[in-house]
Amino acid sequence: CGPRGVGFVSGPMPTKVPSVLFVLSPNGQQKCAGEYTLVENQTANGYPLWKQSGGTSWIYAGLNGMWIVGGPDVKEKGFQCSFGSIFCKVLHHGTPPHKVDGTWWRLSGESFVEDEAIKITVGTSVPFVLRVVSPNGQTRCAGEYQLLVGQMANGMPLWRHKSGKMWLYTGTNGMWVVGGADAKEKDFECTRGVMYSKYAHGGLMPDRVGCIWLRLSGDKFHEDSSITVTIKPSPLYVQSPNGQQRCAGEYVPIADQLANGHPIWEHIGGKCWLYSGSNGMWIIGGDDAKAKDFRCTRGVIYCRSAHGGTMPDKLVGNWLRLEGDTFREDAAISVSVKPPTLYVTSPSGQQKCAGEYRLMPGENLHGQSVWKHRKLAFRISSTREGKWRIAGNESAGGALGDAASVIECDVPHNGSMPNKMGPTWSRLEGEELVKDPSIVISTVLHKPAKLHVKSPNGQQRSAGEYVLVAGAQANGHPLWRQMGGKYWLYSGTNGMWIFGSTVAKESGFDCSRGVIYSNTPHGGVMPDRLKSLWLRLDGEAFHEDEDIVIEADHAPRKR
């Protein structure tokens, strides 16, 4: 059976046809849920056609002018029909399925019922890492499962345990299943496993399926309310520019520890924690909160609304900050899973890519965020294959997707941010990418607050103490000013550290003018840590001077 209309109704072909659609149907006909991919160079009744990834269902335009989700029988009829299990009663007139205005109906028994829970979208939020807890049995299934990008099972995403021996997949019965090698051998065209969700999920992800799980114990499956499937918490990045700045920065989740039933994040510098208070609100607190095992509401920043399980980065509403004895609302405070600033160090090559990169709000490429260099047209973005890279050129023209990579990560990111990839980067050398373990991308740049400069053989007026200019930068790098003098230590447009006078300052440091400069481009390495000699102006020429010393508040280094 299926929806029937009054005859074929024509309309214009959609101008923008999505390559992927996602069907959500949690209340029934769950077998139709999942990802559908566009069938290239094929139409049904003059309109685009989508096939369920790893499944047997289709989204097509029926002869009645309605969008329909049908099974193998509609394919056998060459789509010259109006049969299916889900359909939208509103005639589409060329509007694609995800934009058609009207609720969807599904087959229930021998009749169709309206179901507002059915959604067709161009995408869905798929967690990259899931965490399974099973304390009462099948403990080998517990742990982290990583998304296998680009792989599907029965139209739904597929995750693999970090041990490589277990998989979390959708069975042919539409339920989430945790299975082993026997399920993989059948390409997951089965329902084999040792744990499964009690009900068919209908497109809901494993962490949102909302039903109890069953576990194999002996020869039988038993309900086990202690089994949980959750998203592994991501690192969080806090901004608080107007006060309590010590709370700003990167927070990492503490493994296997909860506060009042929710995750805890610790500041990478220590002494601050983001936790769920006993009042159900997200709070940033210090040692006093930790001393109470977070069974409290102590902190200096908090969100006024009880979160109800919503993660800190997803909350809607302003945060409050302690100022004196009073908490005040501060719209500038933000919590995000994406670092607002990244710092690139590349001392061995492609040094021009080094420096500070800022997150570009609303800009993305291949579904991932983009960060732009503070001065140049370089951007950190994701490739189509899911690898982080730095691409662009010194002019702002051209599309980012068409630019060649000058630095690229060797492994797919699987949703991890660029600063979490470790020493797995390669840089362009000639026409080939070569591995370079010295490349680092981080959220923290250790900038010396003070630098002490000695130049005994000449240009002594540029020697002395230099202080960091807070909030300022030159060509994407930190800037220091001479105490009681007219000199500045800055990164020139040639990528070298330079000691320049007010002439460089007046040009906004958009130059390479100075009297002392590093012998090689620094690639993001701070002046006191460079391994190269410095050059000093002597008359009209520059000469290497091994007696020039630049030191911070740690051990001196002679250059």
As a whole number of angstroms, the C-alpha radius of gyration is: 29 Å
- Span between N and C termini? 83 Å
Q: Approximately how much beta-strand content do the residues carry?
A: 35-45%
Quick check: average pLDDT? Answer: 89
Poorly predicted tracts of residues: 4-9, 394-398, 555-559
What's the tally of helices?
Answer: 4
Number of strands: 46
Strand arrangement within the widest β-sheet reads 44-43-42-41-40-39-38-37-45-46
Shape: elongated
Report the biggest beta sheet as strand number plus sense, adding barrel if it closes. Answer: 10 strands, antiparallel
Structural class estimated from helices and strands: mainly beta
Can you give the helix content as a percent range?
under 10%
Note down, in words, how this protein is organized.
By secondary structure, this protein is mostly beta strands. Helices cover 4% and strands 40% of the residues. The strands form five sheets. Strands 44-43-42-41-40-39-38-37-45-46 form a ten-stranded antiparallel sheet. A nine-stranded antiparallel sheet has the order 8-7-6-5-4-3-2-1-9. A nine-stranded antiparallel sheet has the order 17-16-15-14-13-12-11-10-18.
